[in-house]
Amino acid sequence: MSRKKMIAFASVCFTAVALCAPVQSGDKKNPATTPSPRLDKKGAPDAGWVKRHEGFVDLAKKGDVDIVFLGDSITDGWRGKAGKAGWDKHFAGVKVANFGIGGDRTQHVLWRIQNGELDGVNPKGVVLMIGTNNTGNDSVEEIAAGVAAIVKTISQKAPKAEILVLGVFPRSKMIPNPGNTKIIAINKIITKLDNNKEITYQDIGAKFLKDGQIPAEIMPDYLHLSEKGYQIWGDAIGTFVQNVGKKK
User: Fold this and answer.
1) Whole-angstrom distance between the N-terminal and C-terminal Cα of the chain?
2) Where are the alpha helices (DSSP H) in 63-222?
3) Distances in Å between the alpha carbon of 72 and those of 12, 13, 114?
């Protein structure tokens, strides 16, 4: 690793460690930074979730991927009917792997990338959008620390990758609401992950709003994106995917 890369990596680790610092008293762990597989009702790893993870690990082992998307159902939705047109339009010509799984929280993505999803793939770039599923259970600081822990792990697993960290998207029918207020606070913290080098933070949430509210034509359930919503997302990050993905 070159001296420049070593300095940049050290900077990433310092910022991530600062954001990942304990936010609770006593010995209680932060659930958002504690790697965990998704569990079923019996407390065992969910079989369907594990199967999808293993499929992503197999794809990673094959390599030949330029950009990896990591996230929850909103990222997962790129492969569905609503996301397909935007995916084909904005990411054409780039080898992009979608490692989004519906329902995931920060701790689940953290577990996945610590258990093979970035092993052997050596991507040029990673797009991360995660945290909305944590908002019902975890604090602002805990969730922000979870995002930072993922970024730190990505930097360790894929030190040559450029990382695009997206602000958590707005949600719910009437804004303001407690969940969306929490999201705004999370995004104010994770913007600090941007180091003007290999990590870029981008908040595109305002692009989904009209007069401060989420139109149903963009998020029919006020959480997941419609075809128009995915086109907005693609418009916002297409340049990053194309420029980074096509680097020699």
Assistant:
1) 18
2) 73-76, 81-90, 106-114, 140-157, 178-190
3) 24, 24, 16
Give yes or no for a contact between 82 and 226, defined as CB atoms under 8 angstroms apart: yes
From CA 137, how far away is CA 124, in angstroms rounded?
33
pTM reported for the whole predicted model: 0.90
Into how many domains does the chain fold?
1
Instruction: Give the residue numbers marked as catalytic.
Output: 73, 221, 224
Measured distance CA(174)–CA(4) in Å, rounded:
47
Range of the domain at 208: 3-245
Output the CA–CA distances (angstroms, integers) from residue 159 to 54, 113, 183, in the order listed. 23, 14, 28
- Which domain CATH number covers 99? 3.40.50.1110
The DSSP output letter for 197 is S
For residues 99 and 130, the answer to whether their CB atoms sit within 8 Å is no
Q: Could you list the pLDDT tens digit for every one of the 248 residues in the chain? A: 555 544 454 455 555 555 655 444 345 799 999 999 999 999 999 999 999 999 999 999 999 999 999 999 999 999 999 999 999 999 999 999 999 999 999 999 999 999 999 999 999 999 999 999 999 999 999 999 999 999 999 999 999 999 999 999 999 999 999 999 999 999 999 999 999 999 999 999 999 999 999 999 999 999 999 999 999 999 999 999 999 999 98
